[in-house]
Amino acid sequence: MSPSLDLAALADPTDPGTDPFALAHAAAAVIAERTQVARHDVALVLGSGWGQTADLVGETCTTIDNADVPGFQKAAVAGHSGSMRSVTIGDTGARALVFGTRTHFYEGRGVRAVVHAVRTAKAAGCHTIVLTNGCGGLNPAWAPGTPVLIRDHINLTATSPIEGANFVDLTDLYSARLRELARTVDADLDEGVYVQFRGPHYETPAEVQMAKILGGDLVGMSTTLGGDRGTAVRPTGARDFARDQPRGRHLGRSALPRRSPRRRHGSGRALRSAAVAGRRAHRRGPRERGQSDGQPRVSMPSAPDQAALLAQARAWVHDDPDPVTRDELAAVIEAADAGSGEALADLADRFVGMLEFGTAGLRGAIGAGPNRMNRAVVIRAAAGLTAYLKHDLPTELGGPKATPIVVIGFDARHRSADFARDTAAVVTAAGGLALLLPHVLPTPVLAFAIRHLGADAGVMVTASHNPPQDNGYKVYLGDGSQIVPPADAQIAARIAEVTAGRGRAPRRLRLANRVGEARGRLFGRGRRDHRCREPS
Hints:
Blueprint: H1 7-10, H2 20-35, E1 42-45, H3 53-57, E2 60-65, E3 83-88, E4 95-99, H4 111-123, E5 128-137, E6 148-155, H5 176-185, E7 190-196, H6 205-213, E8 218-220, H7 224-227, E9 239-249, H8 268-284, H9 303-319, H10 323-337, H11 341-350, E10 362-365, H12 375-391, E11 405-410, H13 416-429, E12 433-436, H14 443-453, E13 457-461, E14 470-477, H15 487-498, H16 507-523, E15 532-533
Parallel strand pairs: 1-4, 1-5, 5-9, 6-7, 7-8, 11-12, 11-13, 12-15
Antiparallel strand pairs: 2-3, 3-4, 5-8, 6-9, 10-14, 13-14
């Protein structure tokens, strides 16, 4: 650590004059000095009842009292440890930084103190951050102690750790790739949406019902501000993975007064049982290792897996309707064939799974492959949306429509106009009426057009406030508002059906070829189908 560093001037994250990032780097310097490790690879923040988890990861090399590290304090909640540990991750050579406690927002120390551990983890080199907690479960199928992956959250604290005009997209905050990795260890893992209230009081039955109506599955007093960390993690490349264990079915599910299953002194037994299951999973599960650039490493496929991956990529190239992404992917395949490990890792990331559809629709980097934004993925999404409108549209929005009307808008991003035209072609080919806005227009115009024209849905191709290499696909229903649960899951299920079918090429790509013909009829050389028109 630099001898000129004034720790006394940095030690209080609640002081408005403190630079929170300088404080995080000071804390990381102390951790590096005490552990004699220049960088750690993974961070774990242990919530209530998760104290045994560090022992399952590997051997503890160093234990540091929180009070010895700038910006940290002793644990304020029973069941949390007042120390942090440096732990070897099995025999991988990687290190985990395990925080035995977290600062809760209800402690009154402000949001900077809440996210200080996460900022410190990033400053210490961690590329993946695992958040855990004990919480209340709203799903009656989840018994106390059931491990649940967090796929999204709702922050009801009315605050954020992001300071200033830093617009950070949180669409894929909780890494889908890491959740899939967890399921390779335990295929039965379920997932849900975590709702954070401020605390420290437990929620009223009415508040719990509100959380359910909003789409919540889990309720607690932590995690989302850590997950919302924005400037602490997202702009700097770390990825999130969060895991809950409901301590019990939440009191608010019933009007009958009874003892809350979330009382801290009653949570240990259920969480200890879940920890045993976690230990078994840990012994048989795969692990990731860090790499020098701070990004998560995609595990290098074995030789048979490499062959399957290359075959999958070649099949995509063969059926890709877009010559731009087709040529791009062909170049990556050629490099992988030549033995490039970087190209193989790139392919593994592109084909790790389909780009996930949620309440914010789709968003991803433009490129070839199912885990990127491209014409094939957009065509698949448009086909799933049209099927939803024809079969699943709720009665309050008019019910299923034989001829759904869809308004389509787009911004000035790269490929936005192409994605919009593909969507129009899909809707038209499926028997719907596509109303394509005439030129680049902002999202509020689309929302107005949906209501004004009496449309059943709208699509806006946009990725505002996101990196320039990204693009997005947002869906709105007939009331002009962006989709909310359960519509997102229903549309996602319809999209998934598009991948079904026999033969080498997935249906989504064969569909892309048919859509190319429809698009040619709609937009080729002045010809325009009567079903696809610009709104008057």
